[in-house]
Design brief:
This is DUF6265 domain-containing protein. InterPro entries: DUF6265 (IPR046232). By secondary structure, the chain is mainly beta. The chain has one helix and ten strands. The protein is 10% helix and 54% strand. The N and C termini lie far apart (51 Å).
């Protein structure tokens, strides 16, 4: 009985620790609009992957919120991302492209990495594989599901307003 209780508690703890999610097959994104995620707007800086990570988000305009990201390691840009959260009919989608430090693209010319909206809460925005969480006015957490060689790991980017 103690073993079953331990396993049950262990599984509940694992479930609570997960911050990123995926839509179920056939499940559609809920309604959402850019004003519901406008709290992401700002210039944010933190540490990740052994370096300095930085994101700059614009306020909503033209049915989108654009952003740029860069990771600095040993004083040099490791890579960039450029993207947006955009209004897509009655829902939102986040899309991005990656670039090496020399601006050569990772994805093919017409390919984007897309993250469909899963759920919106007052201070949280859940997209497939990425979650934004407002800690307070000057701090946000971004949880990203990173996949590499068939393995996946949830990575926390803790940002402070810069």
């Amino acid at each position: 009985m103690k073993t079953i209780l331990f396993l049950l508690l262990f599984n509940i703890t694992l479930l609570q620790a997960q911050k990123t999610f995926q839509l179920n097959e056939g499940q559609k994104s809920p309604k959402g609009d850019l004003e519901q995620v406008s709290w992401i707007t700002g210039h944010w800086r933190g540490e990740a992957f052994g370096g300095i990570s930085e994101e700059i988000w614009s306020p909503p305009l033209g049915d989108s919120m654009m952003f740029v990201f860069r990771l600095i390691n040993e004083g040099k840009v490791s890579f960039y991302e450029i993207g947006h959260i955009r209004q897509l009919d009655t829902t939102l989608i986040m899309q991005l492209k990656h670039f090496h430090g020399n601006l050569k693209g990772w994805e093919s010319k017409d390919k984007t990495i897309d993250f469909k909206l899963i759920k919106l809460e007052k201070h949280k925005a859940y997209f497939e594989g990425i979650t934004f969480e407002r800690v307070n006015e000057n701090e946000i957490n971004v949880y990203v599901l990173v996949e590499d060689s068939g393995n996946s790991e949830e990575v926390l980017f803790n940002y402070k307003r810069f």
